[in-house]
Amino acid sequence: MSGAVHLIGMSGEKKGLRLSILDQSPVAEGSVPADALQNSIALAKRVDELGYTRFWMSEHHAMDLLACTAPEILLARIGVETKRIRIGSGGIMLPHYTALKVAEVFRTLYGLYPGRVDLGIGRAPGGGPTESLALRRSRKTPMEDDFPDQVSELLAFLEDDFPTAHPFSRVKAMPEPPQGEGYAGPDVWMLGSSMWSSGAAVEFGLPYSFAHFFSPVKTRDAIETYMRNFRNGIRREKPEATVAVGVVCAETQEEAEFLASSAKLLQQRIRLGERKPVASPEAAIREMQMRGVVPLEEGEWPRYFVGTPARVKEQLEQMAGALGIEELIVNTIVWDQQKRIRSYELLAEAFGLK
Fold it and tell me: Which domains does the chain have, with CATH numbers?
């Protein structure tokens, strides 16, 4: 039995699984972070042409490996360079910011690119403990987890929905979005890699994206819990969930596995607390041979799907079918920018995205 997912359009025709992209501006060994930022812009332009649904930028701090520390700035540029693809954060690490500032930034993006902006929010720090301390809004009081309150405040600013007696009821998150039927503004997503984030998405009635490539063990539990417990009408009439997976595609299985060596070493390095730039496949293979096997905790599905387009398509459709979701977010990290773009091209061809 096939695990393929099919969507029924307004005209009754079947549509395939939607694919989107999470980009982290990976820095290749031998290059500089500025190159990685330009690579992200070039990638966004190409996948816009290929028919991908969304292009999300992540937020990470103080890493030699990832250059995207300010996704909102890159999104402002990427919006100019693209025509139809949705652009968004994957995500904004809300504990570092005030809710009003985030609302203003993403209403500004929405004003520039109406109908195309997603605001993915997360609770993770996007860096280590020292980086988290440096990013704290206040260091005069003990660290506290006020993320649920922050989310409530952010949504109230975006939806102009503070109670009359609230001190912020007269504070407007500007610029206001165009008026029309229903709520117009950035589409807010809850992001996470835990059961906690699944429950938070249910509580706030938000769409949910699970970072499977980062933490693959609880993927099914988190998605099924979200789908089962979602309460219609809080903000949406039905649940919407995605899963972010790693993918490396190439014309042959051998080439795909060779290219994926860089990502495999990256995962091992991260587990050991190393944040070095992405190694070439040759260097990655040598280093892994010297280190020996470093087992990674895996779940029902691998973090990275590696292979020919046909093989990867089959595996992704099986996963989406098993989870009952209609969209997957793809993250591809390889050393060579042209090979990275080619991986996305092959996947788009296999799924017939255009």
Answer: 7-351 (3.20.20.30)
